[in-house]
Write a structure and sequence with these properties.
By secondary structure, this protein is of the alpha+beta class. The chain is about 20% helix and about 35% strand. It has two domains: about 200 residues, no CATH class; about 55 residues, Arc Repressor Mutant, subunit A. Strands 1, 2, 3, 4, 5, 6 and 7 form a seven-stranded mixed beta sheet that branches. It has a two-stranded antiparallel sheet with strand order 8-9.
Length: about 270
């Protein structure tokens, strides 16, 4: 069942109502903006990996992945029943979660026709007691009735491997470096740093150059000019919540306005929202 969160984001990116749920071959496309196909994916990116790979053969694709910055849990007594409790989930997404999302998507990204936009959002999750399709039952089981969009914050768009450095901030890594250095500078555990390094190695953002004991050493390769696919209409001229961290907040329910892009490093920043 489609959630309100998915529906609101889909409507925001589409050119108009006629550009929603458009059939294309064996697939249905969430939205179309100019000559770009837009896929909103709340679940794992691996679920749409084959679909996106097929679409990229002849189309430009924007994958929009919401990250839940805050989530308000609203519990009903039963399905569509009265509200009996509210609490805020302790889980909060960060920009480093981008690498967890990309773990099983490195066979698709990067691609000259592909852009991935990660959007920080606040949501309400409405739930009621139930077991759903679980094989094993527990008294604490619940069924998610809906997820509703409350607010939209910043967004980061990845187009090239160089863009993968943006969520890491201004890191002063030694040359070469290992995941211990990465963990220390980011303030995360070694396991998280290893997942980040895996994604960056698989996509070509870093290269393995040797070993220091049991630790693998990496370096950032020299910048290479990226081959791009020419398009008459650029997606980011008209659509997109934002690209890369910006301070302005946006609301998908507000009237859309024309945007003008500027460039910072290897990524584009959309202004006007």
């Amino acid at each position: 069942m489609e959630t309100s969160l998915h529906r609101d984001l889909k409507s925001h990116y589409a050119d108009d109502r006629n550009c929603l749920e458009v059939p294309l071959g064996d697939y249905r496309i969430d939205a179309i903006a100019d000559d770009w196909l837009v896929e909103i994916q709340h679940g794992s990116l691996s679920a749409i990996r084959n679909k996106v790979r097929t679409l990229l053969k002849s189309h430009q694709v924007l994958v929009v992945k919401p990250l839940l910055q805050t989530k308000q849990l609203i519990k009903r007594k039963k399905k569509k029943g009265s509200v009996i409790g509210r609490r805020k989930s302790p889980k909060r997404a960060t920009w480093l979660d981008i690498f967890d999302e990309l773990l099983y998507f490195t066979s698709v990204f990067p691609h000259p026709r592909l852009a991935i936009e990660f959007v920080m959002v606040d949501v309400e999750e409405w739930r009621y007691p139930g077991h759903g399709k679980r094989r094993r039952w527990s008294k604490k089981d619940f069924v998610v009735e809906d997820q509703k969009l409350v607010d939209v914050h910043d967004a980061t768009r990845l187009c090239t491997v160089e863009d993968l450095w943006q969520p890491l901030g201004d890191l002063k890594l030694p040359r070469p470096f290992h995941t211990g250095h990465l963990a220390e500078l980011l303030g995360v555990c070694r396991e998280t740093a290893q997942r980040i390094a895996y994604v960056m190695r698989q996509t070509g953002a870093i290269a393995q150059v040797g070993k220091q004991g049991n630790a693998i050493l990496y370096e950032r390769p020299k910048k290479r000019q990226r081959k791009t696919v020419k398009s008459k209409n650029k997606l980011n001229v008209k659509r997109g919540i934002s690209v890369n961290p910006i301070t302005a907040k946006t609301n998908p329910n507000q009237k859309k306005q024309a945007l003008s892009p500027s460039r910072v490093g290897g990524a584009e920043i959309i202004q006007g929202l």
